[in-house]
Amino acid sequence: MFKKILVANRGEIAVRVIRACRELGVKTAAVYSEADKSALHAHIADEAVCVGPPASKNSYLNTQALISACEITGAEAVHPGYGFLSESPAFVRLCQKCRIKWIGPSPEAMEAMGDKANAKKTVMEAGVPVIPGSDGVVKELAEAKKIAREIGYPVMVKAAAGGGGRGIRAVSSESGLEKAIAEAGQDAAAFFGNGDVYIEKLITNPKHVEIQLLADEHGNVVHLGERDCSCQRRNQKLLEESPCFVVSPQLREKMGLAAVKAAKACGYQNAGTIEFLLDENGDFYFMEMNARIQVEHPVTESITGIDLVKSQIKIAAGEKLPFTQEDIGFSGHVIECRVNAENPAADFRPAPGRIESLHLPGGFGVRIDSAVYQGYIIPPFYDSMIAKVIVRGDDRTEAIRKMRVALSEFLIEGVVTNIDFQLGILRDGEFIGGKYDIGFLERKK
Asked: What is the pTM of this model?
């Protein structure tokens, strides 16, 4: 096991990783920007290093500063969390060159699955169902038009790199294709430094269902069931739950085996997630792979009893998975709500500011993952998430009720939040019926 790990992130995920390290008896080194000097993760780690000014590109994305932080603190490994450099093959190779262990997949696996067009080709060869579309990146408008005619409108133009809902455009007819390609490419170039796009069939009214994976360095790969992430706005998730209302045990096993095949096809190691679209007929299609821990990982932890972050660290330290697929069970129903500092009435505009007073909910089966405290100033430079509220009930009805109670007890003054918006979702008949899809929130506008 490692003696010291550098946590190359901020906010609640940095706090989550630091706590996992502590429980394993591993010392931690945090990094922080000048804007995060008072951040919780910088204070609870064994030591902390300032890596630059507020802008992410000069701090949390500053690879040379992060490597220097490892050298200064003597950290043997880096845990990237999610976002920032968590899916950067170039940074992984830099760590390897400096003999620093990366807690995550290899750069080769990242490249195989990080580029969505390449990932699609990889999983197709492994026999995993994919959405009909281009075989790879589309370079010419004439080629795009030909592919769109063959698969039929509506289609999606999607960035080959990146995620988070960026670089995606829906197109209903050929007249809008050229503009969509240009806009998606511009978004992709701005956010990911790669303007390549590809085209795929738009599946109408699907559910967004993802499968959690763990893979060790000894060839063992298991899936830990599914999470329904269909409750999203502008392709960004707001609420996740497990199990998915419409996934039977048989379908879960089928999707799980497909996800395992995809991971094995690229030699994947550590924690990862395969994202599928599930249509109204129960057919599912590979969408992408996230080569990192997910924001919503507590959902799986709560329903399986398996600590995913500790598992990541143990895998990176060379340990074998202590369980097989047959050992993994699922108990109860879990829901996670993301509480953000944003204004739903103003198109979810971020609302940074000082938290004047704060009361976090609690009780049996309630978990809060957060890095805020009373008096903390939410900076305007980063993601607006305040906390993740995770509840577990014996069944879905109990979990919904428990989440309503928890959110009603979540009191925060000084900043605008989306708590009331989340409560509205939990009281909506379509959501309560469990048959909502990724267009659910858009239809509620």
From this structure: 0.89
